[in-house]
Write a structure and sequence with these properties.
Largest sheet: 3 strands, antiparallel
Number of domains: 4
Order of helices and strands: HEEEEHEHEHEHEEHH
Distance between the termini: 7 Å
Shape: elongated
Low-confidence stretches: 72-76, 78-98, 106-111, 113-123
Strand content: 5-15%
Length: 351
C-alpha cells in the first residue's frame, strides 16, 4: 500500500511540473504574439504608405506615357491573379492568388487596383487613353487656323426657288417661291475654337487632379517667363484657356464675318499656341523624367515590403498559429492535470 501511495505522489508531482512548465511557456508565447503583431502592423503601415506613393506617381504619369497604374495578371487558364510570393515575373516582382485576397488569407496585400476583365500577363502597362497630347493637338490646329471664316456667308442668296437658280434678286426669288437671306452654314470661327479649347481644358483639369504634390518640382514656363511647380504649370494653361474663351466674340452676324484677332485676344491665342506647340511638350518630358526615378524606387520598396510581409505570413504567422493552437491545447492539459491531481490526492489520503 505504501508503494502505491508513493507512485501516486510521484504522479502528482509530475503533473504539477508539467503545469508549471506550460504556465512558464505561456509568457514566452504571449511575447511572441505581441512581437509578431507589432512587426505585422509595421509591415502593413509600410505597405500602405508605399502603395499610396506608388499609385500617386502612376496616376500622374499615365497622362504622359499612356500606361494605366494597375498591377495585374491572368494565368493561362484565365484565372485572375495578383502578385504573390512564390512566383515572379521577368523582373522578379512577386505574385499571389486573388483568391487569397478574397478569403482574407493575405488580407491587405493586394498591390494596386486592377479592374475586372483584364487579360494578358502582367498588364501593369495597360493602355491609358487619352494621353495629354490628344486634345492639345486638336486645339493647336484650331488656334493656328483662327479665324477660319469659310463657314461664314458673306452675302444673301436665294434658296428653294423654282426653277433652282432663277432667284437672282430678292424680288425674283420671292416671286419664284424661294427664300431670300443668308444661307445656313457650319459653325462660326469662335464656335470652332471654343469646341477645341474646352476638351483641352477638361483634359488638363484631369491631369491637375492627379499631379503628385509630393513630387511637385519647379519647371520653366516660357509664356510667363518664370519657374512654376507642376501644379502651377497646368493651372497657368487652364487660366490662359479661360482668358481666351472670355475674349472670343460671339457668333458673327453676316455679312460681318469674324475679324482677325487683335490686342488681348491675339496675345492670348499666341500664348496658347506657344503652350500647345512647344512649351508643354518640353515641360512634360522633364516632368516624366522627374517622376520616373521615384517610381522605380517606390516599386522596389513596395514589392520589397510585400515580400517581407509574405515571408512573415508564410513563416512566422503559420508557426505562430501553431503555437496558438497548442496554447489552447495546453489550457486543456492544465485543466486535466489539475483534475487528476485532485483525484490523486484524494486517493493518497484514503490509503
Amino acid at each position: 500500500m505504501a508503494d502505491l501511495k508513493q507512485v501516486f505522489s510521484m504522479e502528482v508531482e509530475r503533473r504539477k511540473g508539467v503545469n508549471a512548465s506550460i504556465v512558464a511557456a505561456a509568457a514566452s508565447i504571449a511575447a511572441a504574439i505581441a512581437q509578431f503583431t507589432e512587426l505585422n502592423d509595421a509591415y502593413t503601415d509600410s505597405l500602405t504608405t508605399s502603395r499610396n506613393k506608388l499609385l500617386a506617381l502612376y496616376k500622374e504619369r499615365r497622362h504622359y506615357n499612356g500606361l494605366d497604374p494597375a498591377v495585374y495578371s491572368i494565368d493561362a487558364s484565365g484565372v485572375d491573379t495578383y502578385p504573390y510570393f512564390g512566383e515572379t515575373d521577368a523582373i522578379c516582382n512577386p505574385y499571389f492568388p486573388k483568391s487569397k485576397v478574397i478569403d482574407g488569407t493575405f488580407d491587405g496585400l493586394e498591390p494596386l487596383e486592377a479592374p475586372v476583365g483584364r487579360s494578358g500577363a502582367w498588364a501593369r502597362n495597360q493602355t491609358y487613353s487619352p494621353t495629354e497630347d490628344a486634345a492639345r493637338g486638336t486645339a493647336l490646329t484650331q488656334l493656328n487656323a483662327y479665324p477660319d471664316t469659310s463657314n461664314e456667308p458673306t452675302e444673301e442668296a436665294c434658296t428653294g426657288e423654282t426653277p433652282e437658280g432663277s432667284g437672282t434678286t430678292e424680288a425674283t426669288c420671292i416671286a419664284n417661291g424661294g427664300t431670300w437671306g443668308y444661307p445656313s452654314s457650319g459653325p462660326s470661327a469662335p464656335a470652332i475654337l471654343t469646341a477645341a479649347l474646352n476638351p483641352w481644358k477638361t483634359d488638363i483639369q484631369s491631369i491637375l487632379a492627379d499631379v503628385d504634390s509630393s513630387q511637385d518640382q519647379t519647371y520653366n514656363n516660357p509664356v510667363l517667363g518664370s519657374s512654376r511647380t507642376a501644379t502651377q504649370w497646368w493651372q497657368d494653361v487652364i487660366d490662359e484657356i479661360d482668358t481666351c474663351l472670355g475674349l472670343l466674340p460671339g457668333d458673327p452676324t453676316p455679312p460681318d464675318q469674324t475679324p482677325a484677332p487683335t490686342g488681348a485676344l491675339l496675345t492670348s491665342i499666341n500664348n496658347l499656341i506657344t503652350y500647345a506647340d512647344t512649351a508643354i511638350a518640353t515641360f512634360v518630358t522633364a516632368r516624366s523624367s522627374d517622376l520616373g526615378g521615384p517610381a522605380d524606387t517606390e516599386e522596389q520598396t513596395f514589392f520589397g515590403v510585400v515580400k517581407l510581409r509574405l515571408h512573415q505570413v508564410n513563416g512566422s504567422l503559420s508557426k505562430l498559429n501553431g503555437i496558438k493552437a497548442q496554447d489552447g491545447q495546453n489550457d486543456s492539459i492544465i485543466a486535466d492535470n489539475e483534475a487528476a491531481i485532485k483525484d490523486l490526492n484524494d486517493l493518497i489520503e484514503s490509503l
